[in-house]
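Researcher: Let's do a round of design. I'm pasting the structure tokens now; please hold your answer until I've finished.
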């Protein structure tokens, strides 16, 4: 009996950890943007939080459309993120877009770049899966 209870508890803990460990956001970005100093074309992208939380790997479907962005700081979860919501935020200066923030469902946000001076935010909402 004790073994069965222990086994069930371990399985539950594993499920909780794997459910909260989502590290990837997939989004269709409808415009070219700059990430980590590299201009990437519009298209389908995957934003992968690295295990050490110091970088976000950006990988696009087009050949050569990838970059590794350094995390400046983590942003406290707020109305931006629920267990289902994800957002990719860009700083827009004129017609240029700079990858600024990644919000992963159920996780704090990640600030990747902060534009100094006048800019707008453009948010790409990611549909829940």
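Researcher: That's everything. Go ahead.
Model: Designed sequence:
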């Amino acid at each position: 009996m004790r073994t069965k209870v222990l086994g069930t508890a371990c399985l539950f803990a594993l499920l909780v950890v794997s459910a909260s460990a989502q590290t990837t956001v997939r989004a269709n970005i409808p415009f070219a943007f700059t990430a980590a100093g590299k201009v990437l074309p519009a298209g389908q992208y995957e934003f992968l939080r690295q295990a050490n939380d110091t970088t976000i790997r950006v990988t696009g479907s087009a050949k050569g459309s990838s970059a590794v962005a350094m995390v400046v700081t983590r942003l406290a979860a707020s109305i931006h993120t629920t267990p289902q919501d994800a957002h990719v935020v860009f700083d827009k200066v004129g017609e240029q877009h700079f990858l600024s923030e990644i919000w992963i469902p159920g996780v704090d946000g990640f600030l990747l770049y902060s534009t100094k001076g006048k800019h707008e935010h453009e948010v790409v909402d990611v549909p829940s899966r």
